[in-house]
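Database export, one record per block. Field names are fixed; values are copied verbatim from the stored entry.
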Amino acid sequence: MLNRAFPAGLALILGACSDDGPTADQPSSQPTAIVAQSGDGQTQVVDHTLANRIVARVTDARGRSVRNASVGFEVVSGGGTIIGPATARTDTAGLANAIWRLGTSTAVEQAVRAHVTTSSTAEVSVTFRATSRPAIASILEVQASDENINPAPEITRVVVARAYDAFRNPVPDARVAWSAPMAGTVRAAQTVTGPDGTTRNDWTLRATSGATVGQGVYWITVNPADASAFGTSPALYVVIVGDARLVATALAVGSTRTCAVANGGQVYCWGVDTSGRLADASRLPYAIPISIGADSFTQIVAGRAHTCALTTAGKAFCWGENTEGQLGDGTQTFRSGAVAVEQRGTFVSLVAGGDHTCALTDQGAALCWGSNRAGQLGDGSLTARSAPNEVSGGARFTSLAAGVSHTCGLTTAGGTVCWGSNDFGQIGTVPGGPCQNDCVTIPAAVEGSFVAISAGIRFTCGLERGGVAWCWGAGLQPRTRVKSSVSFASLVGSQSSDACGMTDGGRTYCWTLSDDLEYYYSQAQSLRVGGALTFSAFRVGDSRVCGIERANQSWVVCWSTVPYDASAAPSYVLRVGQP
């Protein structure tokens, strides 16, 4: 019985050791070769997964499929990734597969190596390759922009634009739209990029009002023909003809835009225009002339989201946001173009707060309109006004200053009064009033004798006759003298936490008065700004400061940073030309 059973038992043992069947961790036979079964040579957009998996087949020395062989997949070029496990076991057909996501570049080869270990512990491998193509174009750039050229009767330039995807790969066959919105003509309204992602067009400027093209900045815009394919901002090709620096007599700096009155009385504005504050749809970084009729202007002011300008005849025009009636036209309708203020009398100066505006008449009356949530109109109420309304009390003023939510004035009697928000002591009186936070709805006397005043987001400053500046509000307890080694001749307010003073010679010094709700601090230490430059006017905004040079030719310079940052170099503002 035992002798007859032994051959059968031996057969079972030998069968278990045969290379025809795998164990749990061993292949069915020893691998000797690996080949690309399918998935090689595919084409896909960069940073995308191939449509089909890459499949490798493993065989032994007799050409049979090897089951349970461990195949590794690794990216060897192109920077892509294997999605999921980097190793896979072959199935009964000797096949193992992987999911391959391509890298982000079209300039390098995309390759994955599949490898398996042979009986001698060496490896055999096969390489899969794929072709990557660029993603949809999302960046458009022009070459050799900002060229400085001399005035001439005609100026022609060949403009080269290149389309890129989000990974900076050049994009061929992208349709590009060209426009000359300010001046000149382009040869073609639309072109298509070539294999290297570039396309060309001709732009011609011709003189229309003189013998040569007028001095200034000119540009064309390069946009996607399919707007959904690109960002919303166009690429610009710019030429600067002659001396394009803006010469001005007055400045206003708002939260996102800046305006100036040029020496000829024309209003120019620049910056981001999201609320019609520029009276123009442009978001370009150059000073654009604003159409406000044929009037000549002497002053301009900017609030949080509105702008107002004063003509030489004493008439006020405003544009921008009007939800609180801050334009003074009797409505609360947004205005992308300038509208006349429904004024009484002749105005001699304007000031703008966050959402309110005030004017001083030639008779010394103070009129205010717009938001009155904190009593900043000074008429004894908290009611917004869409047209000028006289400040209560009948006082006559020599000058006014507006903070974001409060207003102050110097009276003809030599006193100083303030009204509006007093939540940080910026009115300079005992806290109280009808507001949820402290406020004063009619003019309240301020201690001290001042010859000039300025206001900021939650502070007020006054200048004594001897040139000493004092500030209050912004958590300052008590009123604080500004530390300075010079005497000031005038003060500059802001819509931010910064205040400045100017000397008789135009040197400008600034200091910070913080009103942070968590971290109260004051740095009432003045620091010189602008280096060796001197200014005839200086204005402070949320994120930029600008000045009109006192020397040279009254050019406008700006910084896009805090005024006391000594490392920030001012740059000249360039104006748009008129051919």
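Remark 1: DSSP finds one helix and 46 strands in the chain.
Remark 2: The two ends are 117 Å apart (CA to CA).
End of record.
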